[in-house]
Known about the structure:
This protein is an all-beta fold. It has strands at residues 2-5, 9-12, 36-40, 47-51, 57-61, 75-76.
Amino acid sequence: xxxxxxxxxxxKTKLSAYGNVRTGGIIAIDxxxxxxxxxxxxSPGEDVLxxxxxxxxxxxxxxxxxxxxxxTGGVRGIKLAKDDRVV
Length: 87
């Protein structure tokens, strides 16, 4: 799974990490003050495209984002200009 936040943070986690659901739920990503924009299922060999409201974008191979644990926050996927956001 590839998570993307409004602030440009991305996180890749193996789908198998979400197999054991607890009664209190599962923490999938640490958002802090951010908002989740999208979660997609990424296959090996695919590219990921992030685009902003101001028209900027970045494309990268899915292997450039290493797999992380469930409760981590992720890494910067795109550097945003002031008052811009990922759409």
